[in-house]
Write a structure and sequence with these properties.
Number of helices: 5
Shape: rod-shaped
Order of helices and strands: HHHEEHH
Helix content: 55-70%
Strand order of the largest sheet: 1-2
Number of strands: 2
Radius of gyration: 36 Å
Oligomer: single chain
Largest sheet: 2 strands, antiparallel
Distance between the termini: 104 Å
């Protein structure tokens, strides 16, 4: 019978050297992985914090803009010309008033809608804005706001 053949013998020094090299590679890789994970978490927290701050600032600016617009247009309701035109109940006259007076006075306003108590667009005027946006789509999108405004809220 023949004796089984053995592969090349690995010396103890080689085994120790392989173990040490494995540790020298594994420790930095593990350290880098842990540091990377913590940095990603910190960046995510910072981004969330910055986004929350930006959102709050944006909402405050939007509320200030809404309040300014409400005050601006509420004062126009007591204009004698507006009340006289309102008494006429004529869509063409109201549309001319919106085009010439309202859009002429408020240059930053691009589209004006006047809605009757039924929620239907009574008169409309435009001084700019995208042509693809129709008055009806704006009225449909703002239906909840229009309903609240008609109820005096």
């Amino acid at each position: 019978m023949t004796a089984p053949t053995r592969g090349p013998r690995v010396r103890l020094e080689t085994k120790v050297m392989v173990a040490v090299l494995a540790m020298l590679v594994a420790l930095p890789v593990t350290t880098l992985w842990i540091v990377d994970r913590h940095l990603q978490e910190q960046v995510q927290r910072d981004a969330d914090f910055a986004l929350a701050g930006a959102r709050t600032t944006f909402l405050q600016a939007l509320k200030a803009r809404n309040d300014e617009l409400a005050v601006r247009f509420r004062s126009g309701f007591y204009d004698q010309r507006f009340l006289a035109i309102l008494g006429l109940n004529d869509a063409a006259t109201m549309q001319a008033f919106l085009q010439e007076d309202v859009l002429g006075e408020y240059r930053d306003t691009e589209i004006v809608l006047f809605v009757n108590p039924d929620g239907k667009v009574f008169a409309k005027a435009r001084s700019g804005g995208p042509a693809s946006v129709s008055f009806e789509s704006i009225a449909a999108g703002a239906e909840g706001l229009i309903r609240s405004a008609l109820q005096g809220e």
